[in-house]
Specification:
Elements (H helix, E strand, L loop, with lengths): L3 H29 L5 H29 L6 H28 L12 H73 L4 H18 L6 E3 H19 L3 E7 L7 E3 L4 H14 L4 E10 L2 E9 L4 H4 L10 H13 L4 E8 L2 E9 L2 H14 L1
Parallel strand pairs: 2-4
Antiparallel strand pairs: 1-3, 4-5, 5-7, 6-7
Helix pairs in contact: 1-2, 1-4, 2-3, 2-4, 3-4, 4-5, 4-9, 5-6, 7-9
């Protein structure tokens, strides 16, 4: 059945159609007749086409209500019969409207069974059908819009569900590693282990926040700071980590825990392959219209990765998780790569942001300033 908005659109479209027919006919008719008849010509067109408009609107609304109960050929037969009956109603309504308006007999027509069936059911019914095509066009267009919207919503929900699954996949992965670190310190350094538990609680507060699957660079950096505090307590002077964030970057929206897996891998695998202290550099900068997130650490890629015995995804669940979420949130607008160059391993995400997105971030920076 037609919704309220579609009903209004249908009424306006059909009314506009008959106004166009009435005005065109009135001008053409008035040109060929004496000026004395102009008033009656206009009145006739208003009453005749007004009757047609009312009938046509009622026909379309009734058809929309009944069409959900019919299928296939019955829809066509029902529309045909409805237009025929509508034509009879139209002619009858027009005839009595002209009589009530006191129109001269020369402007009216004889109303009999033959006139009702021929002029009404057949001729006027055909006109009703043709004008009703406006309704069918509106209905078809509206359905296509609704289907596109439903498809878009379904895709968005599927993406959200997948992002949520990927996000929760990271939580136990990090928690397992963090708890192992705390476990190793409980007996020898209980005070520092308690401090680590406090920092872990702050980190998990962000991790388990159900505000959505989107975060900002600022939130990501704050969570990474919590993580690095834990690792500095654990590794002391064996870890040297610094961060640098472009002034326009903090409000850029990214998937939750997009940067963290790169930092975690830098610590985990850097401690195995780097001379001490392990140096980690975290950068979030703007290069032209790209947002670049780069995590660099001293050391080397695993030998298996360098020899291509395993894919880069084989480094761990975290990097595979990054690839999957980038495909969902920034399809065809991202590059993710890992390089081993002169004693440094660099993991880099490059996001292509539009000029409009950067203007939004610049406005945030100005407001902040």
């Amino acid at each position: 059945m037609l919704s309220g908005r579609k009903q209004l659109l249908t009424v306006l479209a059909i009314t506009g159609g008959y106004l166009l027919i009435a005005s065109t006919n009135a001008v053409d008719w008035a040109i060929r007749e004496p000026p004395a008849k102009t008033f009656y010509i206009i009145l006739w067109e208003v009453l005749y086409n007004g009757s047609a408009c009312i009938t046509n609107i009622a026909l379309c609304l009734f058809y929309s209500k009944m069409s959900s109960h019919l299928k296939g050929i019955w829809l066509i037969l029902f529309a045909t019969a409805l237009c025929f009956v509508g034509g009879v109603i139209w002619v009858s309504l027009a005839h009595f409207s002209l009589l009530l308006a006191g129109m001269p007999s020369s402007f009216n027509f004889e109303l009999g069974w033959i006139a009702l069936l021929s002029q009404g059911g057949l001729a006027s019914g055909k006109t009703l059908f043709l004008v009703s095509c406006i309704y069918f066009g509106i209905e078809y267009w509206w359905q296509s819009v609704e289907q596109e919207e439903k498809a878009r919503q379904a895709t968005a929900l599927a993406h959200q569900a997948q992002l949520k699954m990927l996000r929760y996949q990271l939580n136990p992965h990090f928690l397992f590693n963090a708890l192992n670190s705390i476990r190793g310190m409980i007996i020898e350094e209980p005070y520092r282990s308690r401090e680590m538990v406090t920092e872990l609680a702050d980190f998990l507060r962000y991790s388990l926040d159900d505000k959505g699957q989107e975060s900002t660079i600022a939130d990501e950096i704050k969570a990474i700071e919590n993580y690095l505090v834990i690792q500095r307590i654990r590794f002391e002077d064996r870890l040297d980590a610094t961060m640098s964030v472009d002034a326009f970057a903090p409000h850029v929206e990214v998937p939750c825990f997009l940067i963290h897996p790169m930092v975690e891998n830098a610590v985990k695998y850097g401690m195995k392959t780097s001379a001490m202290p392990l140096r980690i550099r975290i950068e979030v900068i703007r290069e032209h219209d790209d947002l670049v997130i780069r995590v660099s650490n001293t050391g080397h890629l695993l030998a298996a990765v360098q020899n291509r015995a395993v894919s880069l995804d084989g480094v761990g669940i975290g990097l595979k998780n990054i690839r999957e979420r980038l495909k969902l949130v920034f399809p065809d607008r991202h590059v993710f790569k890992i390089e081993d160059n002169q004693g440094w391993v660099r993991a880099e995400i490059r996001l292509q942001l539009s000029a409009r997105e950067w203007q939004h971030e610049i406005a945030h920076s100005v407001d902040r300033g």
